[in-house]
Design a protein that fits this description.
The protein is an alpha+beta fold and 143 residues long. The protein has one domain: Alpha-D-Glucose-1,6-Bisphosphate, Chain A, domain 4. Helix content is 32%, strand content 41%. The protein contains four helices and nine strands. Strand 3 and strand 4 form a beta hairpin. The protein is globular and about 45 Å long. 17% of the residues are buried.
């Protein structure tokens, strides 16, 4: 298994409060539904339920990420279903101080050793995009 970690970001929200916001996946759907249509079009076909993220990608088809572990306030773990390779997303929350949280996202992917040089860069890019998403969505900054 290969692990790709995002650069840490600092979010100006206490760890428990941030965990509660992030682990309530349905709130993301409410946010997406309120976006202007042109922003929705850029996101593509993404839906959120209480315990999953469902993405329809043209090349891969439908992928579902199900919450498999919630450990308040420090870990939200999602596992990919219908993925060509086993894939786990670990969103880690670490209290920086009483008002700030460090957030790091790890992508654990079962990639054969010989394919890692070909896909490793894309996986690292995906991990970094998760970090940027936290910075943008929750008003964070790079640590």
């Amino acid at each position: 298994m290969a692990t790709y970690s995002s650069k840490p970001v600092i979010v100006a929200t206490p760890a428990g409060e941030l965990f509660d916001k992030v682990s309530n996946l349905e709130s993301f759907q409410q946010s997406i539904d309120s976006l202007p249509q042109e922003h929705k079009d850029k996101l593509g076909d993404v839906r959120f339920t209480a315990d999953s993220i469902i993405i329809n990608a043209p090349v891969v088809g439908q992928m579902t990420f199900n919450v498999v572990e919630r450990r308040r306030p420090d870990l939200l773990k999602l596992s990919a279903e219908n993925s060509p390779v086993p894939f786990i997303i670990n969103i880690k929350f670490k209290e920086a101080d009483s008002a700030h949280t460090h957030v790091t996202t790890d992508l654990d992917v079962e990639i054969p050793m010989m394919l890692r040089p070909m896909v490793g860069g894309k996986m690292q890019e995906a991990a970094d995009k998760f970090g940027e998403m936290f910075a943008n969505f929750f008003g964070g900054q790079k640590a």
